[in-house]
Amino acid sequence: MKERLEALRAEALQELRDVAGPQQLNDLRVKYLGKKGALTEILRGMGGLSAEERPVIGQAGNEVRAAIEEVIETKQAAFQQAETENRLRAETIDVTLPGKKTSAGAVHPLNKVAQEIEDAFIGMGYTIAEGPEVETDFFNFEALNLPKNHPARDMQDSFYITDEILMRTHTSPVQVRTMKAMNGKPVKVICPGKVYRRDDDDATHSFQFNQIEGLVIGPNIRMSDLKGTLLQFVQLMYGKQAQIRLRPSFFPFTEPSAEVDVTCVKCGGHGCRMCKHTGWIEILGCGMVHPRVLEMGGYDPNEMSGFAFGMGVERIAILKYGIDDIRHFYTNDLRFLSQFVRM
C-alpha cells in the first residue's frame, strides 16, 4: 500500500506541474483529494492492515495529501496573482491624460421664458392652476360660450378622441375648472400648459405648443385693471421702455375682447422689417370675462366681473430672443440650445 501511495504522489505532482488553469487545477484536486478521489480510495484499504501497519500507512497518506495540497495552493495563488495583474493591466487609468470636458447644461429657452412669465405674475399675487391635457368638450368649448356647431369652433381645429373627448386646444378649461372649484369666491390664477391643434408645422405654427392664460374674478374688476396688469407684465419681460396698445377683437369667452400689441423689441417702435414698419407686434389676446362664462363657472355676473388673457410661450420667447423659426425649439439642435447656457 505504501508503494501505491508513493506512485500516487508521483503521478499527482507530475500532472500538477503541467496544469494550465484554475479549472484544471480544481479538477485535479477533486481527482486526487476528493471524497471519491484516488487517495481516499487507497486509504479505505487500511481496514485490512495490522495494528502495527496502520500508523505507518496513515502517516504516509497524510504526507502524500500534504504534498499534493501544497502544490495545489501554490498553483492556485499563482493563478490568482496572474488574474489580478491581467485585470489591473486592462483597467489601468493614465492619470496624466487630460480630463474629458463635459458640456454644461442649461434650462431650455421655452422653460426659461415660461418660468419668467410665471414669476412675473406670481409677483403680482397670482397663483398657478393646472388641469388635464385630455379634456371634455364641455370644459374645452361649451363652458366657454362655444356650444356645439358654433362657428367659432372652426378657429381651433381640434384633435378629437371621441365625440366628447379631445386634446385641449387652449388652457381655458383650467379657468373653468378653477371657477367651479372656487364656489363663487374671487379668483386670481394663471394656467400654464401644453395645448394641441391640428396645424401644419412651419416657421410660425406647430400642432403642439405652450400657453399661459390668466383669470381674475372679483367685485368691480375693470378693463383698466386688465390693461395695467398687461403693461406691468410686458415691462417686466421686455424692459421699462416697452408700451402696449389694445385693439378691438373677438373671442367667444370675453366681451369686450382685444388683441394686445407691444412696441417692437427690435426697433423700439420706430418701424422695421420685424414689425412690418408699424412699430407694433401682437403678443396676446384678452378681454373681460363674458357674463355667460361667469354663469357657467358658478358666478353671478351682476355681483362679480373679471378679465382673462392668454399668450403663447413660443411667441413671447421668439420676440424676447429674436428667433425666426418656432421649429428651433423642438429640433434639439445643440448649436441653437447652447446659445442660452449663460442667459
UniProtKB/TrEMBL annotation:
Domain of life the protein comes from: Bacteria
EC number per UniProt: 6.1.1.20
Any single GO BP term: phenylalanyl-tRNA aminoacylation
InterPro entries: aa-tRNA-synth_II (IPR006195), aa-tRNA-synth_II/BPL/LPL (IPR045864), Phe-tRNA-synth_IIc_asu (IPR004529), Phe-tRNA_ligase_II_N (IPR004188), Phe_tRNA_ligase_alpha1_bac (IPR022911), Phenylalanyl-tRNA_Synthase (IPR002319), tRNA-bd_arm (IPR010978)
Annotated Aminoacyl-transfer RNA synthetases class-II family profile domain residues: 111-319
PROSITE patterns: AA_TRNA_LIGASE_II
Record note on cofactor: Binds 2 magnesium ions per tetramer.
Family in the record: Belongs to the class-II aminoacyl-tRNA synthetase family. Phe-tRNA synthetase alpha subunit type 1 subfamily.
Quaternary structure, from the entry: Tetramer of two alpha and two beta subunits.
Record-given protein name: Phenylalanine--tRNA ligase alpha subunit
Native species: Paenibacillus lycopersici
